[in-house]
Amino acid sequence: MKANRNLARAPGAFTLTELLIVIAILAILAALLLPALTQAKERGKLTACRSNQRQLAIAALTYAIDNAEWLNPLQDVRVGPDGNSWETTYRVILWDYVGGNPAVFDCPTERVAVYADGISTTDAALGGFALDPAVDWSRLYGYPSQYEVWNASGIGVAGAHWIPVRDDVDPLARVSTMPFGRPLGGGYYEGLHRTTEMTSPAKLICFGDGGSGTATWSDDNWWIKEVTPGAEDNAGFNRLTQDDYGCRRHAGGAVYVFADGHADRLAAAAIPCNPTECWWSLRLNAHAPAAGAGVAP
Ligand SMILES: [Zn+2]
């Protein structure tokens, strides 16, 4: 008599075919769920990036309230704990306004340009200096020091247009059109700005996903800037065409926070920078000919 294999196996056990089917179903389910999980993870990072940027906008506006409406400098020369004066960044200047939390200057999606990891080997490589093994470089942030400017961060301060659009002969009379300028003198010629100079706060970018990662000034991985020397006041500023990887960090776009405190994810090409409207400038029409100038920039 032919043996019945189904009867021969233990009650409740699976056949090989049944097991293979179960494994195949699990593999299909995993393949279906993994992209959804990855997307959910990225959505979480996007939310965290947006939250960090909103904190930065609030910090800058609170700084202005404390300083007679003057916004914080993009960078400045400040005295460090070692008693020396060092060129430093807005991160040190807003430090107390973000509760001394270095992670606020970072985007969770960014792995390389990270402020909270202190001076990393990547930062040192950009700066062309060696890390001294005797120093704890991982905690070098939040105060003026020789290397603070070299610490890349995932979120950059807006500095696309720092040469004035109007034609000034005297460099000391220059006033930049970026929201956070640099103090006049000391090698800086742009000047600072007051919140009252913003013509359209809802259309003025203050911070955004940073990490310019370009050959020109690649050391300054903490601000969003025009990377073509001499073209800093040009209309048509587009981070994508400049291969600025920070602008495509979140599904091809980037998070930006505006002076009214709202944050948006935008594609680089969707940000206006033309004679009618420039979201990088204090004056919405910064690229339009200045009154009396007669010549378009
Ligand atoms: Zn512009």
Task: Please provide a written account of the structure.
The chain has 297 residues and is of the alpha+beta class. The chain has helices spanning 5-8, 16-66, 90-93, 121-127, and strands at 75-79, 85-89, 155-159, 205-209, 223-225, 254-258, 263-266. The chain has one domain. Helix content is 22%, strand content 11%. The protein has a 5-stranded mixed beta sheet with strand order 5-3-4-6-7, with helices on one face. It has a two-stranded antiparallel ribbon with strand order 1-2. The relative contact order is 0.14. Mean pLDDT is 86; it is low at 293-297. Zinc ion binds at residues 161, 235, 237, 273, 278, 280-281, 287.
Per-chain topology:
Layout: H1 5-8, H2 16-66, E1 75-79, E2 85-89, H3 90-93, H4 121-127, E3 155-159, E4 205-209, E5 223-225, E6 254-258, E7 263-266
Parallel strand pairs: 3-5
Antiparallel strand pairs: 1-2, 3-4, 4-6, 6-7
Bound molecules: zinc ion.
Quick recap:
Helices cover 22% and strands 11% of the residues. It is of the alpha+beta class and 297 residues long. It has one domain (40-270).
Strand content: 5-15%
Rounded mean pLDDT is 86
Biggest sheet layout: 5 strands, mixed
How many domains comprise the coordinates?
1
H/I helix tally: 4
* Total number of beta strands: 7
What is the share of helical residues?
10-25%
Ligand set? zinc ion
From the N-terminal CA to the C-terminal CA, the straight-line distance is: 99 Å
Order of helices and strands: HHEEHHEEEEE
Which regions are unreliable across 5 or more consecutive residues at pLDDT < 50?
A: 293-297
Radius of gyration: 25 Å
Main-sheet strand order equals 5-3-4-6-7
User: From the helix content, strand content and strand pairing, which structural class follows?
Assistant: alpha+beta
Task: Using the alpha-carbon principal axes, give the shape.
Answer: globular
